[in-house]
Write a structure and sequence with these properties.
GO terms for molecular function: GTP binding; nucleotidyltransferase activity. InterPro entries: GMPPB_C, Hexapep_transf_CS, Mannose-1P_guanyltransferase, NTP_transferase_dom, Nucleotide-diphossugar_trans. By secondary structure, the chain is α/β, with parallel strands linked by helices. The chain has 10 helices and 32 strands. A hairpin with a 6-residue loop joins β9 and β10. α3 packs across α9.
Length: about 425
């Protein structure tokens, strides 16, 4: 039997995702109409013999998370449990801490997935690849090709081209190492815990030898248990005949910033043609004009003269008035777009209102369309003291008055604006 573990992180991360992560844990943010995590769970539930999905993170178990897990269990008919870490333990420390839960029932292998990636999740292909390569206890990393410059922002993999064995692994190198990057999706056998355990033992010995290095106040156990799969495990395993890379030609992207959520939404909406055609709407008599891939929740109320798409996702209870134009945007539940407003490259927060004839627009942060291997840049918010132009984000319950323009700005929750803004963070 198989299991899957999804690493969902915790509240101190996701700072680049503000102000959206104020309202909802980042893994539950809707991308292409469903919570980010649901795409992972759907992919896992399709794998034959998958018995359980474990979510590991250090969010307090809140109502939203509990409700999501209950509805996902019913929908996908699979056991899903949330295991809460007592602190941020890193990608390796979290699974090592809960190794008994992961190994209970005796799975022959288990997937590890980071929650903040968007992918076609070629899990069955990774299983077949593992059977064909190396010994039964070998481990598989999902890799993809990036361009030379961007590869240095990721974990880089040097492979033996005949056998696909990982010969060398470097996390975010300072010079070019390889254009094959780590996708944050792994297939492990229970033997991985021997390797993580060895790092844990070494950390404990180091703590005895150098008890006051770093932060004096930290609990020693916590410091020994904070283990990173990438830097601590993969770097050591590379070149030992244990670690292999399965390269996927399918789509993959990280979801680090709000701008990358719009790009991920586009990738998933495009994939719906193959796996969820029922989630895409088309132009119908008496309905709004649809161009490209658009998801509309059945509870949304949309005027037939509106024009939507491409790449638009509209949440529950949204109201869209006459003559509204929306493209490349995510409209979250309860938002109202009044008559003739225009929303481009934007995330409109929960219960926000955009007035008549207002224009809310951002700059797309898409990868270079002429480079097949380009990935999305995780831009910093500021460059040279100025706000980097990117998509416009309205937090929850923001009111934009009629006939104003909001351009390349981030508006924090509960703001009533009274004029136009450009290139600003409105606090």
């Amino acid at each position: 039997m198989l299991k899957a573990v999804i690493l969902i992180g915790g509240p101190q991360k996701g700072t680049r995702f503000r102000p959206l992560s104020f309202e909802v844990p980042k893994p539950l943010f809707p991308v292409a109409g469903v919570p980010m995590l649901q795409h992972h769970i759907e992919a896992c539930a399709k794998v034959p013999n998958m018995k359980e999905i474990l979510l590991i993170g250090f969010y307090q178990p809140n109502e939203e998370l509990t409700r999501f897990i209950c509805s996902a269990q019913q929908e996908f008919k699979i056991s899903i449990r949330y295991l809460q870490e007592y602190a941020a333990l890193g990608t390796g420390g979290g699974i090592y801490h809960f190794r008994d839960q992961i190994l209970s029932g005796g799975p022959e292998a288990f997937f590890i997935m980071n929650a903040d990636v968007c992918s076609e999740f070629p899990l069955p292909e990774m299983l077949n690849f593992q059977k064909e390569h190396g010994e039964p206890s070998s481990f598989v990393i999902l890799g993809t090709t990036a361009n030379r410059k961007q590869s240095m922002n990721y974990g880089c993999i040097v492979e033996n081209q005949q056998t696909n064995e990982v010969l060398h692994y470097v996390e975010k190198p300072s010079t070019f190492v390889s254009d094959i990057i780590n996708c944050g999706i792994y297939l492990f056998t229970p033997e991985i815990f021997q390797h993580i355990g060895a790092v844990f033992q070494k950390n404990q010995q180091d703590m005895l030898l150098y008890p006051y290095e770093g932060d004096e106040q930290t609990n020693g156990w916590h410091r020994a248990e904070a283990i990173r799969l990438e830097q601590d495990i993969f770097t050591a395993l590379a070149g030992q005949g244990k670690l292999y890379v399965y390269k996927t030609p399918a789509f993959w992207s990280q979801i680090k910033s709000a701008g990358s959520a719009i790009y991920a939404s586009r990738l998933y909406l495009n994939q719906y043609h193959k796996v969820h055609a029922e989630r895409l709407v088309t132009t119908e008599d008496g309905g709004p004009r649809i161009s490209g891939n658009v998801y509309i929740h059945p509870t949304a109320n949309i005027d037939p003269t509106a024009v939507l798409g491409p790449n638009v996702s509209i949440g529950t209870g949204v109201t869209i008035g006459a003559g509204v134009r929306v493209r490349e945007s995510i409209i979250l539940h309860g938002a109202t777009l009044q008559d003739h407003s225009c929303v481009l490259n934007c995330i409109v927060g929960w219960d926000s209102t955009i007035g008549k004839w207002a224009r809310v627009e951002g700059t797309p942060s898409d990868p270079n369309p002429n480079d097949p291997y380009a990935k999305i840049d995780s831009e910093t918010l500021f460059r040279d003291g100025k706000l980097t132009p990117s998509i416009t984000i309205l937090g929850c319950n923001v009111t934009i008055p009629s006939e104003v323009i909001i351009l390349n700005s981030i508006v924090l929750p509960h703001k009533d604006l009274n004029r136009s803004f450009k290139n600003q963070i409105i606090l």
